[in-house]
Each structure stands twice: as C-alpha cells, then as structure tokens.
UniProtKB/TrEMBL annotation:
Pathway: Isoprenoid biosynthesis; isopentenyl diphosphate biosynthesis via DXP pathway; isopentenyl diphosphate from 1-deoxy-D-xylulose 5-phosphate: step 3/6. This is 4-diphosphocytidyl-2-C-methyl-D-erythritol kinase. Residues 53-72 are annotated as: Disordered. InterPro entries: GHMP_kinase_C_dom, GHMP_kinase_C_sf, GHMP_kinase_N_dom, IspE, Ribosomal_Su5_D2-typ_SF, Ribsml_uS5_D2-typ_fold_subgr. Keywords: ATP-binding, Isoprene biosynthesis, Kinase, Nucleotide-binding, Transferase. It comes from Streptomyces marincola. The active site is at K20, D150.
Amino acid sequence: MSQPPRPAPGRSVTVRVPAKVNVQLSVGPRRPDGFHDLANVFLAVGIHDRVTATTAPDGQGPGISCSGPGSEHVPLDGRNLAVRAAELLAAHHGFVPDVHLHIDKDIPVAGGMAGGSADAAGALLACDTLWGTRTPRADLLELCARLGSDVPFSLVGGAALGEGRGERLTELPVGGTFHWVFAPADGGLGTPEVYRECDRLRGAAAVPEPAADPALLAALRAGDTAGLAAALANDLQPAALSLRPDLAATLAAGLAAGAPAGLVSGSGPTCAFLAPDAEAAAGIAATLVANGVSPRARATAGPVPGATTIESHA
Ligand code: C5P
C-alpha cells in the first residue's frame, strides 16, 4: 500500500461530535442477520467528544489515546471504533493509516448516547481532513454505515429518522430548541445485550413493523415540547430496566424534580428528561446532583450540528 499525500509529522485536525438521544426508538422483529429493523428518530444534543488526528511518525499505524470521564473503559486497540474508522478510510483510498487519534470524552461511555459512534464519525472526518482526501459525503456516509448503525447520524447531526438498522437516514425539520437533562449512570450497558433482552422479553409475541409516529414528527417540526413529551417512546426501555432495575428510580426522580417526561436514552443506562426551558433543565439537573441520584446529571439542548472540524493544522 502507498502513503497518502501526507502532511508533515505533528500536523493535526480536531473534530467535535455530538451525542444523541432517541426521541422515538421503535424496534421491529429480529432479522435473520441478527439486527432489528428500526424506526429511530435521532436528535443530536450538546454533549460532545473531541477527536484529534495527528500525523504519526512514518510507518506507524493508527495509535489511540483517550482522556476524560470514563476513558479508562475505552478500548485502546483495534476494537476501538475510531481506529477502525481510520483503517477503513485509509483502505478506501489505498494507503496505510499512519495517524495518531486522541479522543477527549465528554459523552458517557457505553451510556446509550452513541459515544463510540461519535468517535468513529469524528475520526473519519478528522482523517479525511488531515489526509486531504476530500472523500465525497455519500462515500463517507457509506463508510459510517459499515462501522455501525448509529455512525451515519453522528456525522450528520441535527434530527433524522433512521430506518433499516438505523443507518438509512432522512433528515427531519425541527422548529425550535428542545431542552434536556441527561442523567448518566455508573457502569455501562452493552447494546447487543439490551437487544437480546428485548427479544427475550417479547418471547413469541407478534412484533409490528416499526414506523415513525406522525405526532412525534409534528411536535419536532413545531418545536412543541409538550407534544414531544407526550410522544417520547423507546422500545428498548423495558429491556434496559430489566437489566438495570435501578433506572426506574432515576426516571421517577427526574419526574419528581419537575420534568414533564423522561426515558432511557437508546440502550441506556443514561436517562434523559425533557424540560420546558433552559432554566427548568438547569434546576432539574441540579436537583438530581444534589439528591445523589445522578452526580453527573447535566442540562443541555438540541438539535445541534453533526461532526464539525474545529481546529485544523493540516
Ligand atoms: O450497528 P452496531 O454495531 O452499533 O450494533 C451493535 C449491536 O446492536 C448489534 O450487534 C446488534 O446486536 C444490535 N443492533 C440490532 N439492531 C439494530 C442495531 C443494533 O439488533 N438495528
């Protein structure tokens, strides 16, 4: 394999990538390939990881380091989705990925907020900029889909309906800002484990094909918090609660603190609460911290843009 038209050693590009919450996650029957067809309405929210790609000394394949809360649980080898993203992009262009990736985490690790997917999308964009490969958007999205079902959305951001296994995106119009509180939990939940538990709980029951809820799409379009609160739905929530019964108390605490609605974020264990405005969100987060329910609870808002280059010394 050849080398990319490589920038000098030490050159770097930093990309910031948002977390997501699923405002609707409808899970269809298990497919023969083990995945599930979804109607997955993603909203990108203002909690970000930063991925920095730096040209490594000659011939050294993708290196990886990680800092921030929970970084001790992030694999620092070929299992890391960001490493796989760099390898995939380099192979796509036919060269060796001589890059070092640093991930500065703020998205909860294994928290149901697409942190690993965000890092993969961030690494793709950072390497593409560092290497000057100018990969067309459609090709980047296809590489994202090969890395994981949620990775295309991390690149795109905003709000989108994900169909298929979640990777086939249709961007959605959003008519306002939604205020959220996220309550991370200790320990993570493995996504495959949660889907397995969902299948187990369903047993032989007939499962309808998933479809986006028109009332939820209308609430997003109108920027209507009360409408969105009424329509929030996550088919993985019973499975997450079955594996982590303690989350029921977190959900109850958020509602008791004044949130109009709450749900488990994706496969969990982070819990997400809608709030009427920024001030209310800050108050709910402060209550969850003060009463010890979630010491890392925080307020934020969405939608926000997807993966964005914030620094380039390439
Ligand atoms: O696509 P991704 O690698 O993120 O998926 C992780 C796991 O989540 C899959 O291996 C599968 O067990 C489960 N999954 C699923 N159906 C989907 C998406 C993910 O069953 N649509």
